[in-house]
């Protein structure tokens, strides 16, 4: 396996990031065969931001995390996670949070093998959303 | 019916907010997990780079009564980002003291957060609920919320403390 490097994204990476976002979206609905070309240098990404737990303080929230399927099995995902956890510690975050779909067994195993816990199963947390049309209804009421 | 005002929290509200955070944790049967200090809340919410925003519900005194307004509820939220939908708002905590429930204060707080969300160009509002908290789930569903864990199978995961340190290679 060729050497790889994990580095922060720059503005110039946006078209590659968008390509990977689309691939991740497809993956989350069905398995996808990825066709490689020699130009595919960027093979994975992680998108994160900081959130807040009023009981503890700052958290790192991992919104998207993806490695192209042909590049899996080479510890690239592990290296990305290591990088992220170092960012989290440097920024004094007490933990990293993220979502996983319950059918996504390979991802669930990947995270659990590395010490992650499923808060939905363990503590009963359910994620809810309110779409824009209902926000508009709420804001219009008086 | 008391007169209630929903307003943005100020630094001076942090003591009250911490008290209500502890009450909410107690209600969620997880009170041993509250480790935060008032100083951290001040620094994290009212410094140069806030990590959260907070609204408080204040009961306004009846004319002639000696005591001032009193904070009886809060909503703590922050902005998040979906790579599919863009800007969203996440309501992390919402709490109204038990003796003030049933008067629409919770709905007023949520509505105010919805207004902020729309004002900032957000297309979605997210929050988490404990599966036994039927009263809260019914309130949110009445406002148009959908349970994504049920509908799409999303589970919340975390790496914390020791697990995170190990990942970092420390």
From TrEMBL, chain A:
One of its GO terms (molecular function) is spermidine binding. It is found in: Cytoplasm. PROSITE patterns: GNAT. One of its GO terms (biological process) is spermidine acetylation. Its main location: cytoplasm. It catalyses: spermidine + acetyl-CoA = N(1)-acetylspermidine + CoA + H(+); spermine + acetyl-CoA = N(1)-acetylspermine + CoA + H(+); an alkane-alpha,omega-diamine + acetyl-CoA = an N-acetylalkane-alpha,omega-diamine + CoA + H(+). It comes from the Eukaryota. Keywords: Acyltransferase, Cytoplasm, Transferase. Its EC number is 2.3.1.57. Enzyme which catalyzes the acetylation of polyamines. Substrate specificity: norspermidine = spermidine >> spermine > N(1)-acetylspermine. This highly regulated enzyme allows a fine attenuation of the intracellular concentration of polyamines. Also involved in the regulation of polyamine transport out of cells. Also acts on 1,3-diaminopropane and 1,5-diaminopentane. This is Diamine acetyltransferase 1.
TrEMBL record, chain B:
The gene is SAT2. It comes from Rhinolophus ferrumequinum (Greater horseshoe bat). Homodimer. The lineage of its organism: Eukaryota, Metazoa, Chordata, Craniata, Vertebrata. PANTHER family: DIAMINE N-ACETYLTRANSFERASE, THIALYSINE N-EPSILON-ACETYLTRANSFERASE. One of its GO terms (molecular function) is diamine N-acetyltransferase activity. CDD domains: NAT_SF. Its EC number is 2.3.1.57. It holds the Pfam family Acetyltransf_1. Gene3D superfamilies: 3.40.630.30. Keywords: Acyltransferase, Transferase. Belongs to the acetyltransferase family. Residues 4-166 form the N-acetyltransferase domain. It comes from the Eukaryota. GO terms for biological process: nor-spermidine metabolic process; putrescine acetylation; spermidine acetylation; spermine acetylation. This is diamine N-acetyltransferase.
